[in-house]
Specification:
Strand content: 25-35%
CATH architecture: 3-Layer(aba) Sandwich
Structural class: alpha/beta
Radius of gyration: 15 Å
Order of helices and strands: HEHEHHEEHEHHEE
Helix content: 25-40%
Distance between the termini: 30 Å
Shape: globular
Number of helices: 7
Number of domains: 1
CATH topology: Rossmann fold
Bound molecules: S-adenosylmethionine
Oligomer: single chain
C-alpha cells in the first residue's frame, strides 16, 4: 500500500541498516519493506502468519530469495521457528497492534543477538478514523507511551525510546 511508504521510510531511517546486518521483519505483508531493507546490501528474514502474504513477499522478492539473501517464513510472531540470538536487528511496521505483545516481545528478544536493535512503528491511542476501518480498529491494541515502554522493559529490552510521529504514530526504538 502506498499509504505505508512513509511508515516504511521512517522505520528504515531509525533502523540504520548496514550491509553486515541480518534483520528480521515481523508481519511482512506484501514484502515491500523488506525489499527496501535489502537495498542496504544486507540479508534478511521476513515472517508472516499468512501463507498468502508469505507467498506474495517471496514473489515480490524472487531474486533475493533465489540468491539466498532473503528467507521468508510462515510463522506467528508469538512462536518463531527460528534459532536463538540470530538477528542483528528487527523491525515491525503496521503489525504490533495485532500481536500478543508480551509473548511476541519475549520471543523476539530470544532470536535477537545481544546488543541488537529493534524498531517498531505502531499506532498511538485515539487515532483518526482514517487509520483503519472500524472492524479492524476494534482489533487493534493501542498503548500509551508509558505502557509501551513498560512492555519493552518487561520483555528485557533496554534503552527503550518512544517518539511520536505526528498525532497518529509511535516509533519505538530499543536494544536487546
Ligand atoms: C496491516 S498488515 C501490514 C503488512 C506490512 N508490514 C505493511 O506495513 O504493509 C499486518 C501483517 O501482519 C501479519 N500478522 C498479523 N498478526 C500476525 C502475527 N501474530 N504473527 C505474524 N504475522 C502477523 C498479517 O498477516 C499482515 O500481513
Amino acid at each position: 500500500m502506498k499509504a505505508h511508504h512513509k511508515i516504511f521510510s521512517d522505520t528504515l531511517s531509525a533502523l540504520e541498516l548496514q550491509p553486515a546486518d541480518n534483520p528480521l521483519e515481523i508481519g511482512c505483508g506484501a514484502g515491500t519493506f523488506v525489499r527496501w531493507a535489502l537495498e542496504s546490501g544486507c540479508r534478511a528474514t521476513a515472517v508472516d502468519h499468512s501463507a498468502d502474504m508469505v507467498a506474495l513477499t517471496a514473489r515480490n522478492n524472487a531474486v533475493a530469495v533465489r540468491d539466498g539473501r532473503l528467507k521468508v517464513v510462515e510463522a506467528t510472531a508469538e512462536a518463531l521457528p527460528l534459532p536463538d540470538e540470530q538477528f542483528t536487528c528487527a523491525a515491525m511496521a503496521n503489525v504490533f497492534f495485532f500481536l500478543d505483545a508480551p509473548r511476541a516481545l519475549t520471543e523476539l528478544r530470544r532470536v535477537l543477538a545481544p546488543g541488537a536493535r529493534i524498531v517498531v512503528h505502531t499506532v498511538a491511542p485515539n487515532p483518526p478514523a482514517s487509520v483503519a476501518p472500524p472492524p479492524v480498529a476494534r482489533r487493534m491494541r493501542l498503548y500509551s507511551d508509558d505502557d509501551l515502554r513498560a512492555l519493552f522493559q518487561n520483555a528485557g529490552f533496554t534503552e527503550s525510546n518512544i517518539a511520536r510521529l505526528g498525532a497518529t504514530f509511535q516509533l519505538v526504538t530499543a536494544s536487546r
